[in-house]
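Appendix C: a fully annotated inverse folding record. The material below is reproduced so that readers can follow the format used throughout the book. The structure is listed first as tokens, followed by the designed sequence.
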């Protein structure tokens, strides 16, 4: 983690915030493929999407997972969102726990199928995740995530722990040099997406939302390399350039994800300091910084191709 790169990124983001070009709250803007209303169906949508919010990357030589919805073609996570909406528009209650707790692999494949007949990656794992989440919600919470949320006392940290306690498929934990490292990307993004859905009000008014970290994935590290925040040594670069698919829990994977979390915490602190010195009271937290960096990678997708990313097939991100 290079301090000069941290300063460059923090100064860039801070200047955009102060000029009005960047409103960090808009990083969680509801796009055309996200639910617009903070109601039970919106909550169902978020829970379903984040249960499946993992591993969308494809090798460049492979057909890509794309979904065209209402005239726009989406890739990656947004392709999943588009596929969900296509199913809902056709009258299928895909996001209802009562429906997806027993959905077959064949049916899910049909409903999430990409353009040109390209299936979503890790289909069998997605079915298992849906079965677990749907069954727990139906057996313990009357088939409604809102009933689980009602017990979290408007605490992001408590809701995060409840998600981890109830759903094993959200427990994103690895071992690194003899220590247990808890990253919990999907569990944290579920809480953050609910905060976004409610725009920080009502059931989503989590006063401790700043306690969450960034969502350690395989895309944000590309933005961190682009800004010069990350510098990979020759050993790591040579390994990544081989385009090897690593097993989940590989030391390189855990190190990159852990450093991503630390780097974003450092960035967030630097941005807050700059804005405080300039008497700017904009809301800044690691979630919003993460969303900026994730969006930055998508905006500069072609340019980012020169920065290798670690490839892991995993249900955790």
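Designed amino acids, in order:
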């Amino acid at each position: 983690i290079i301090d000069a790169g941290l300063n460059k990124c923090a100064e860039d983001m801070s200047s955009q915030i102060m000029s009005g070009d960047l409103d960090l709250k808009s990083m969680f803007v509801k796009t055309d493929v996200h639910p617009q209303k903070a109601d039970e169906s919106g909550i169902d949508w978020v829970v379903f999407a984040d249960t499946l919010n993992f591993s969308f990357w494809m090798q460049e030589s492979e057909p890509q997972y794309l979904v065209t919805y209402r005239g726009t073609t989406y890739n990656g996570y947004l392709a999943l969102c588009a596929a969900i909406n296509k199913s809902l528009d056709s009258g299928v209650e895909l996001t209802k726990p009562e429906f997806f707790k027993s959905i077959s692999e064949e049916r899910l494949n049909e409903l999430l199928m990409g353009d040109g007949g390209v299936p979503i990656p890790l289909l069998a794992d997605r079915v298992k995740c849906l079965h677990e989440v749907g069954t727990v919600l139906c057996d313990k919470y009357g088939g409604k995530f809102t009933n689980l949320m009602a017990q979290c006392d408007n605490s992001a940290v408590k809701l995060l722990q409840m998600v981890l306690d109830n759903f094993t498929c959200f427990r994103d934990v690895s071992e690194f040099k003899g220590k247990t490292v808890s990253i919990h990307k999907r569990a944290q993004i579920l809480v953050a997406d609910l905060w976004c859905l409610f725009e920080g009000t009502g059931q989503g008014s989590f006063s401790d939302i700043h306690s969450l970290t960034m969502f350690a994935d395989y895309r944000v590290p590309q933005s961190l390399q682009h800004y010069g925040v990350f510098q990979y040594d020759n050993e790591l670069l040579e390994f990544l350039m081989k385009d090897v698919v690593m097993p989940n829990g590989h030391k390189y994977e855990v190190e990159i994800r852990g450093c991503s979390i630390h780097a974003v915490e450092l960035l967030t602190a630097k941005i807050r300091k700059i804005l405080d010195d300039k008497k700017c009271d904009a809301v800044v937290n690691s979630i919003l910084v993460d969303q900026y960096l994730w969006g930055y990678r998508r905006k500069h997708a072609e340019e980012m191709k020169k920065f290798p990313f670690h490839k892991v097939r995993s249900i955790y991100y």
